[in-house]
Sequence to fold (76 residues):
Amino acid sequence: MKELVEVIAKALVDFPEEVQVTETENEKSIVLELRVAQSDMGKVIGKQGRIAKAIRSVVKAAASKEEKKVVVEIMQ
Fold:
């Protein structure tokens, strides 16, 4: 999951070297924290959060095999 979010985010931003994804896993869920450069926040979130919602949908579909809840948080 971590690699998937990283690849998608790096394709969207102007500064791909500043993309960081941290993964925290417990019994029932996986939390992915995405950090990008301040100037790239708008590109990752998109108008009315559409790109962020699309990223979450793709990750949720990829995680359906693992039967765990996956949460993608976009951090500053």
